[in-house]
Q: What sequence folds into this?
């Protein structure tokens, strides 16, 4: 018997023992003979008999059969001992026949064949996978070379400032590029940069925003956001969809990038009057950030807004103190970074806070911090005049208002300067001059009310207002007076909208002009984007013009009522003064006293009754705040 067959027989015997070891089986004489022939030691057979609890009532024939089979004496004795004599045990259920050796060999061969088949299939699949991976890698490398070549040419054109050519090449690449690929995002970034280079800021901003919304984990996120900020400074781009920028984590970016990102979001929320969210992001701008001064100024405005108007409330004082601190930091940062615009606005804000709580000396101190070359200077000068007047320094207040009558400021809408003049003249008993001041109001301002209302009635819709005001497409005889036009133009919100609409109109013209270079398809897509923006911005501008003109109309209506009230007061005061003069004449007042009064009054008269601009030739701009009126009281 070969070793292999011996091993198989042992395997069968062991399997048989395992089967017999279960409680469901009782060992028979044939089983014992089979275990012996299978090569199991006598001790193992005995243990199996004992562990299964089998009993044997051996007959003479069975004993002979065991001996003939060569079963060891120890096993036979164990079998005999298990029976204990008595009646023969019931016949056990027949054990399953063991598989013939040829069947086991055939099963083993089948198993080995199946295993070989499985291994072969796995080998084939692995080889196919390696081949597919290699093919994909080859295709990817070829695609990368193609993409690199296509983008390289476009970027080279952009570097050479051949912006039309660059835009066309980037767009050609994108038309055949697969979506959601890094190379596609890179191509879009290049197209946006090329459009920005051409001054097509509206189209560029849209693409930059799309790229930012791909997520902060992309390679184009940071440069796309920087492009978005640049474009937004050129053309007002503040759609509500910018709120999506709050979804992205930028903590892994540089501090400078985080500062810029937080300011951009803070300004967005501020523009939409969402002050709590504005505070959250503006407060994150670090002191070293380029936008720190602007952020502090906006935080100050938010604090003023939160203060409300109830000066008795705790929130009013606390918020105004906080606002002052924000404005002071804005001043310091603006001056340190040589950003005078922010510093001047902050000085003006500090002055207005002091004015609102009656601290007129403090207000004047801050008003005088605004230099004469600042765009905020006229507002500061005008409000300083009122501060002087309200603190009782009438001569300084009048000196400033006389100055504002000068030629350098003749296009500013400042009707209340004449109201103040009329009030001061009345209080000092210069009744004729008070009436003259009111007449100047009627001539210079109230006369504008009728043409203003005609203009608004003729051009009622936002589109018509835009065409009439911006494009000056008006009917003869129905034009807006120049002074009112300048009052609208000086409004900051109008200026932002106007510059945006103007830029978008220029963008449309530039795209049409470059049609031959862009090609019809790209031209069409660019026009669709910018014309939609132009329509929205034009509508917003028309609405803003209507609001400002309505505000001017309301102001002129109030002014008309105030003029009527002051005229009545002047007449009453004049009548009272006349009674005093009559009474004094009855008391024998001398003509000499009247001459002294006339001489005092003449200090403000030259030639005609009143000179609105007493300064001839050059004047020292830095001394304007120091000008004083020589007005004297002539009341009895």
A:
């Amino acid at each position: 018997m070969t070793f292999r067959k011996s091993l198989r027989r042992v395997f069968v015997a062991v399997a048989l023992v395992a089967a017999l070891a279960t409680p469901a089986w009782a060992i028979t004489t044939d089983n014992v003979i089979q275990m012996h022939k299978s090569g199991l030691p006598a001790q193992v057979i005995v243990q199996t008999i004992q562990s299964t609890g089998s009993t044997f009532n051996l007959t003479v024939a069975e004993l002979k059969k065991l001996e003939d089979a060569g079963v060891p004496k120890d096993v036979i004795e164990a079998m005999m001992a298990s029976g204990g004599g008595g009646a023969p045990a019931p016949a056990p259920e027949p054990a399953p026949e063991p598989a013939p050796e040829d069947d086991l060999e055939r099963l083993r061969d089948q198993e080995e064949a199946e295993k070989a088949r499985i291994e072969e299939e796995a080998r084939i699949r692995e080889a196919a996978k390696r081949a597919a991976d290699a093919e994909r890698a080859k295709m990817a490398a070829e695609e990368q070379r193609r993409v690199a070549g296509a983008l390289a040419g476009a970027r080279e054109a952009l570097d050479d400032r051949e912006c039309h050519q660059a835009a066309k090449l980037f767009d050609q690449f994108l038309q055949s590029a697969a979506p959601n690929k890094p190379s596609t995002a890179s191509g879009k970034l290049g197209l946006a940069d090329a459009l920005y280079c051409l001054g097509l800021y509206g189209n560029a901003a849209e693409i930059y925003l799309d790229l930012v919304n791909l997520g902060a984990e992309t390679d184009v996120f940071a440069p796309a956001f920087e492009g978005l900020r640049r474009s937004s400074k050129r053309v007002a781009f503040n759609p509500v969809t910018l709120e999506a920028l709050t979804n992205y984590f930028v903590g892994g970016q540089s501090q400078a990038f985080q500062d810029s990102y937080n300011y951009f979001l803070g300004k967005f929320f501020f523009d939409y009057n969402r002050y709590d969210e504005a505070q959250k992001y503006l407060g994150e701008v670090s002191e070293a950030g380029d936008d720190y001064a602007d952020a502090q100024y906006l935080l100050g405005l938010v604090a003023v807004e939160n203060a409300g108007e109830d000066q008795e409330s705790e929130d009013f004082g606390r918020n105004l103190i906080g606002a002052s601190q924000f404005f002071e930091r804005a001043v310091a940062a603006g001056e340190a970074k040589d950003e005078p615009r922010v510093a001047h606005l902050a000085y003006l804000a500090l002055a207005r806070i002091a004015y609102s709580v009656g601290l007129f000396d403090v207000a004047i101190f801050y008003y005088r911090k605004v230099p004469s070359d600042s765009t905020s200077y006229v507002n500061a000068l005008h409000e300083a005049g009122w501060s002087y007047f309200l603190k009782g320094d009438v001569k300084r207040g009048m000196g400033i208002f006389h100055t504002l009558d000068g030629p350098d400021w003749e296009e500013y809408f400042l009707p209340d300067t004449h109201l103040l003049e009329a009030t001061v003249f009345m209080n000092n008993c210069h009744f004729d001059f008070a009436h003259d001041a009111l007449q100047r109001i009627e001539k210079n301002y109230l006369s504008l009310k009728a043409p203003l209302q005609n203009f608004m009635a003729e051009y009622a819709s936002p589109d018509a207002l835009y065409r009439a005001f911006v494009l000056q497409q008006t009917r003869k005889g129905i034009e807006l007076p120049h002074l009112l036009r300048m009052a609208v133009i000086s409004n900051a919100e109008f200026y932002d909208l106007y510059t945006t609409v103007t830029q978008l109109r220029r963008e449309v013209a530039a795209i049409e002009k470059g049609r031959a270079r862009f090609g019809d398809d790209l031209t069409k897509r660019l026009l669709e984007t910018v014309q939609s923006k132009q329509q929205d911005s034009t509508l917003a501008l028309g609405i803003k013009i209507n609001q400002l003109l309505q505000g001017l109309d309301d102001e002129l209506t109030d002014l008309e009522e105030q003029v009527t009230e002051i005229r009545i007061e002047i007449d009453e005061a004049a009548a009272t003064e006349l009674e005093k003069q009559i009474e004094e004449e009855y008391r024998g007042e001398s003509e000499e006293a009247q001459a002294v009064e006339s001489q005092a009054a003449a200090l403000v008269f030259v030639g005609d009754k009143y000179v609105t601009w007493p300064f001839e030739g050059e004047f020292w701009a830095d001394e304007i705040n120091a000008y004083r009126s020589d007005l004297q009281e002539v009341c009895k």
